[in-house]
Each structure stands twice: as structure tokens, then as C-alpha cells.
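Take a look at this chain, C-alpha cells included, and explain the fold to me:
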Amino acid sequence: MARIELHTGDVFAAALFYGGVLGWAGESADSCQVEYSRGQIVVREGACAGSRPVATLGGAAVPGFEGQHRWHTSFRVTDVDAAAGSALAEGGRVITPPRGTGGRREAVLADREGVPFTVVAE
């Protein structure tokens, strides 16, 4: 998995809720680094500064799902275009066609039930 994102109307309330439930911020070595950056809460793996983001909580919606508050998952794949083709072949759909180049190439797809997810290039 590359990252998870929560699209919500109140990032601070969500951060307090999930931080308390999941123990994101704290004194233990297992805690995460939690910061507010560019209008969203960023949760980084481990307490070390500069560690990779594992979750974000923000107000922007997934394309095609505006106004719906939900978690959104992104998965790393070797070939974004092939993953989009496989989603169609398996009965899913492409919400946002593959775009970008290199490690920034991504596409927003949906499974058979319409649940959106993003695939990003490794």
C-alpha cells in the first residue's frame, strides 16, 4: 500500500478521533509523527522527522465522489496503465485515466462496487 487518505469535512476533529483511537501521537517508539501541512493533517511512519507519509486527512474529495466523506487507499503498482486495464477487465472502472510520468504516474480506479482507489507507479 502506498498511502491512505481520509476525505472529511473537519480534518482536526478527524485527527483527534483517529489519533486517539489508533494512538498516532504519543510518547512511545511506535507513535507516528503528526503534522499540519497545506490544509491537511499528515501522519508519518514512526516518530522520526522526514519519515514517509502513511496517511493524510484532508478536505479534498476523490474525483467523482465530491461531498462524500470516506477513506481512500492508494496502492503501488509496477504498471499504472496495466492496472487500469485490469480493473476494466475485472468489472471495475477507470474514474481518472492514467496520468503523469515516472514515479508520479497514477490513476483513480473503482472496484465492482464502485469503491474508489488510486494506483501509483513504484
In short: Residues 20 and 57 are 14 Å apart (CA to CA).
